[in-house]
Amino acid sequence: MQSRNKIQLTLFPKVSYNRCSAKTELPFLLKAELYFLISSRSCRGSTTRSQPDSKPSFISELRSRAPVVCMDTLSHFTTLFLIGILKNCLFFRGYGGFGALGHSVYHRELLPKMVQGSWDEEMCHIATSGTHTAAITKSGKLYIWGRDEGDGRLGLGPGRGPDFAGGLGTPTEVKVMPEPVAAVSCGGFFTMALTEGGQLWNWGANSNYELGRGDKIGGWKPQPVPSLKDVRLVQIASGGYHSLALTDKGEVLSWGHGGHGQLGHSSLHSRKVPEPVEALANEKVTYIACGGSSSAAVTDKGSLYMWGNAADSQLGVPGLPELQSSPIEVKFLSDDDGLGDHKVLSVSVGASHAMCLFSRSSC
Fold it and tell me: What is the pTM of this model?
């Protein structure tokens, strides 16, 4: 029985989760209708609603579509940016400056609207920085659109970039990748792509060593990260000016800007090339995430570690300094309800908040 403002979930134990060709086994596959919360916090004028919603609201415009299988949300400087994949259709709403919604418009959209792209196959992965967006098809083709004001973050090359006010409102294929793409991550002014073979390629701005190549030379052309040539990666994540990568051995690497402690190296120094997060050396990490200036990791035991900017309590640990430069475990509040301990499965981090998905042994 479905009740408004509640998410109806169907749980399937031990189902293999497949993001393109990169497979990870999660305890549950969630089937849910889509609800959302709108934030009223904005640095650029008024938002779509004068007050934030205190309860989730059902998106009725998507009722007749297939179940949502992927979403990405980010709030770098405006309202909630919502993305959903429905079969081979993409529906976006929220901030539309620089063409970030892919609707060939440059304004906000209150309701979800389908993106009219040139692909003719199922979409399986999406990512956004809030001003530029990327999507991957089932066969590993990468499409990208949104802001590009000369830094090359769209990876399209001369003559294939912005069409209006520094933005590209039409999804365009990135054709220079050497092999099919399994995952993509959009940083503040750069983009990273993980190939099906586990190799990292990136492009865009590099003034804070975001590309991890040991220098500050950026550009539009996708290139591999030299120090990771013989390392197989299984996941990537990008913040505003920093990045994380997860190896097939469960090791976390970080690089880029470290001024908020977001690299996890117990200092505020930047890193020119990927370096292991030594504080997690004794843990096998299964999932990573980046916010604007904070980071997170989930271990195979279901523990959640976070570090970086804590100014808005986004790390979930009371009493931290504003800059937390080493990973700290997040402890969950729980009543003695007999449901067992929290086991974190995944985490998502925004500019000033974080959310995680967890299971409990008796649920």
Answer: 0.76
